[in-house]
Amino acid sequence: MAQTNKSKEIQNVRVQTKKIQENLISNEITPAKIVVDKKKLQKDYDMTPVTGTFRFTEVPGGTLNFTFGKHKGTNKDYSLVDGKVYTIPRCAAKHLKQTGRYPIHEYQTDINGVPIVRVGRMKIRYSFNSLDSFDDSDTGIVTAVKL
Protein backbone atom coordinates (compact mmCIF):
# COMPACT_ATOMS: atom_id res chain seq x y z
CA MET A 1 0.00 0.00 0.00
CA ALA A 2 2.79 2.43 0.95
CA GLN A 3 4.63 1.60 -2.28
CA THR A 4 1.56 2.49 -4.35
CA ASN A 5 1.14 5.83 -2.55
CA LYS A 6 4.81 6.69 -3.13
CA SER A 7 4.52 5.67 -6.78
CA LYS A 8 1.41 7.85 -7.19
CA GLU A 9 3.14 10.83 -5.53
CA ILE A 10 6.20 10.50 -7.75
CA GLN A 11 4.02 10.06 -10.84
CA ASN A 12 2.03 13.18 -9.87
CA VAL A 13 5.23 15.23 -9.52
CA ARG A 14 6.46 13.96 -12.89
CA VAL A 15 3.15 14.82 -14.58
CA GLN A 16 3.24 18.33 -13.12
CA THR A 17 6.85 18.74 -14.26
CA LYS A 18 5.94 17.59 -17.77
CA LYS A 19 3.12 20.16 -17.91
CA ILE A 20 5.59 22.88 -16.93
CA GLN A 21 7.97 21.76 -19.69
CA GLU A 22 5.15 21.74 -22.28
CA ASN A 23 4.05 25.24 -21.25
CA LEU A 24 7.64 26.48 -21.48
CA ILE A 25 8.01 25.14 -24.99
CA SER A 26 4.77 26.84 -26.06
CA ASN A 27 6.01 30.08 -24.38
CA GLU A 28 3.03 30.29 -22.02
CA ILE A 29 5.18 30.71 -18.92
CA THR A 30 8.47 32.39 -18.15
CA PRO A 31 11.61 30.74 -16.74
CA ALA A 32 11.05 32.64 -13.46
CA LYS A 33 7.65 30.95 -13.10
CA ILE A 34 9.33 27.56 -13.60
CA VAL A 35 11.78 28.22 -10.76
CA VAL A 36 8.88 29.05 -8.41
CA ASP A 37 6.93 25.97 -9.52
CA LYS A 38 9.99 23.74 -9.16
CA LYS A 39 10.56 25.01 -5.62
CA LYS A 40 6.91 24.34 -4.75
CA LEU A 41 7.12 20.83 -6.21
CA GLN A 42 10.32 20.14 -4.27
CA LYS A 43 8.75 21.42 -1.04
CA ASP A 44 5.67 19.25 -1.58
CA TYR A 45 7.88 16.22 -2.21
CA ASP A 46 10.08 16.94 0.83
CA MET A 47 7.04 17.30 3.10
CA THR A 48 5.50 13.93 2.15
CA PRO A 49 5.28 11.75 5.27
CA VAL A 50 7.60 8.77 5.78
CA THR A 51 7.04 6.18 8.51
CA GLY A 52 9.99 4.54 10.21
CA THR A 53 11.67 3.38 13.41
CA PHE A 54 14.11 5.67 15.23
CA ARG A 55 17.22 4.02 16.73
CA PHE A 56 19.38 5.98 19.18
CA THR A 57 22.50 3.79 19.37
CA GLU A 58 24.55 6.38 21.26
CA VAL A 59 22.07 6.51 24.17
CA PRO A 60 19.92 3.34 24.17
CA GLY A 61 16.42 4.17 25.40
CA GLY A 62 17.21 7.89 25.18
CA THR A 63 15.47 10.78 23.47
CA LEU A 64 16.85 12.95 20.67
CA ASN A 65 15.49 16.51 20.57
CA PHE A 66 16.15 18.73 17.56
CA THR A 67 14.60 21.45 15.43
CA PHE A 68 14.59 21.08 11.66
CA GLY A 69 13.04 22.85 8.70
CA LYS A 70 14.41 22.61 5.18
CA HIS A 71 12.07 25.16 3.64
CA LYS A 72 10.99 28.59 4.81
CA GLY A 73 8.25 28.33 7.42
CA THR A 74 8.62 24.58 8.00
CA ASN A 75 10.70 24.62 11.21
CA LYS A 76 9.42 22.05 13.67
CA ASP A 77 10.63 20.66 17.00
CA TYR A 78 11.13 16.90 17.06
CA SER A 79 11.48 14.64 20.08
CA LEU A 80 12.29 11.07 19.05
CA VAL A 81 12.55 8.19 21.55
CA ASP A 82 14.71 5.16 20.82
CA GLY A 83 12.78 2.21 19.36
CA LYS A 84 9.52 4.06 18.61
CA VAL A 85 7.82 4.30 15.21
CA TYR A 86 7.30 7.83 13.84
CA THR A 87 5.81 9.47 10.78
CA ILE A 88 7.93 12.47 9.83
CA PRO A 89 8.47 14.49 6.63
CA ARG A 90 10.80 12.98 4.04
CA CYS A 91 13.31 15.86 4.42
CA ALA A 92 13.56 15.27 8.20
CA ALA A 93 14.17 11.54 7.60
CA LYS A 94 16.89 12.41 5.08
CA HIS A 95 18.42 14.85 7.60
CA LEU A 96 18.55 12.10 10.24
CA LYS A 97 20.12 9.73 7.73
CA GLN A 98 22.84 12.23 6.78
CA THR A 99 23.73 13.54 10.25
CA GLY A 100 23.48 10.40 12.36
CA ARG A 101 27.14 9.40 12.16
CA TYR A 102 30.62 10.87 12.35
CA PRO A 103 34.08 9.71 11.24
CA ILE A 104 36.70 8.28 13.59
CA HIS A 105 40.16 9.06 12.26
CA GLU A 106 43.23 6.89 12.67
CA TYR A 107 46.88 7.06 11.72
CA GLN A 108 48.38 4.91 9.05
CA THR A 109 51.78 4.92 7.35
CA ASP A 110 52.04 5.25 3.61
CA ILE A 111 54.54 3.35 1.44
CA ASN A 112 57.30 5.87 2.30
CA GLY A 113 56.79 5.39 6.04
CA VAL A 114 55.18 8.82 6.50
CA PRO A 115 52.23 8.83 8.93
CA ILE A 116 48.95 9.95 7.38
CA VAL A 117 45.50 10.42 8.83
CA ARG A 118 42.55 8.59 7.34
CA VAL A 119 38.98 7.73 8.28
CA GLY A 120 39.11 4.41 10.07
CA ARG A 121 35.40 3.89 10.55
CA MET A 122 32.13 5.73 11.02
CA LYS A 123 30.55 5.93 14.49
CA ILE A 124 26.76 5.65 14.25
CA ARG A 125 24.96 7.90 16.75
CA TYR A 126 21.37 7.41 15.57
CA SER A 127 19.40 6.23 12.56
CA PHE A 128 15.92 6.38 11.08
CA ASN A 129 14.99 3.09 9.43
CA SER A 130 12.10 3.67 7.05
CA LEU A 131 9.26 1.17 6.94
CA ASP A 132 8.19 2.63 3.58
CA SER A 133 10.34 2.20 0.51
CA PHE A 134 12.26 5.43 1.12
CA ASP A 135 14.74 6.52 -1.50
CA ASP A 136 16.18 9.94 -0.66
CA SER A 137 17.89 10.33 -4.04
CA ASP A 138 14.74 10.05 -6.21
CA THR A 139 13.05 13.44 -6.40
CA GLY A 140 11.18 12.82 -9.64
CA ILE A 141 11.76 16.46 -10.60
CA VAL A 142 13.14 17.26 -14.03
CA THR A 143 14.66 20.63 -14.89
CA ALA A 144 13.12 22.34 -17.91
CA VAL A 145 15.41 24.34 -20.17
CA LYS A 146 14.20 26.60 -22.96
CA LEU A 147 15.99 25.87 -26.21
Quick synopsis:
The protein has 147 residues and is α+β, with helices and mostly antiparallel strands. The chain has helices at 2-25, 31-46, 90-99; strands spanning 49-55, 63-68, 76-81, 85-89, 101-109, 115-124, 127-130.
Layout: helices, strands, pairs:
Layout: H1 2-25, H2 31-46, E1 49-55, E2 63-68, E3 76-81, E4 85-89, H3 90-99, E5 101-109, E6 115-124, E7 127-130
Antiparallel strand pairs: 1-4, 1-7, 2-3, 5-6
Helix pairs in contact: 1-2
Structure description:
It is a single chain. The chain contains 3 helices and 7 strands; from the N terminus they run H-H-E-E-E-E-H-E-E-E. With 147 residues, the protein is α+β, with helices and mostly antiparallel strands. The chain is 34% helix and 32% strand. The radius of gyration is 21 Å and the shape is extended. The strands form 3 sheets. Strands 4-1-7 form a 3-stranded antiparallel beta sheet. It has a two-stranded antiparallel ribbon with strand order 2-3. The protein has 2 domains: 46 residues; 90 residues, no CATH class. The model has no long low-confidence stretch (mean pLDDT 78). A hairpin with a 7-residue loop joins strand 2 and strand 3. The two termini are 40 Å apart. Helix 1 runs antiparallel to helix 2.
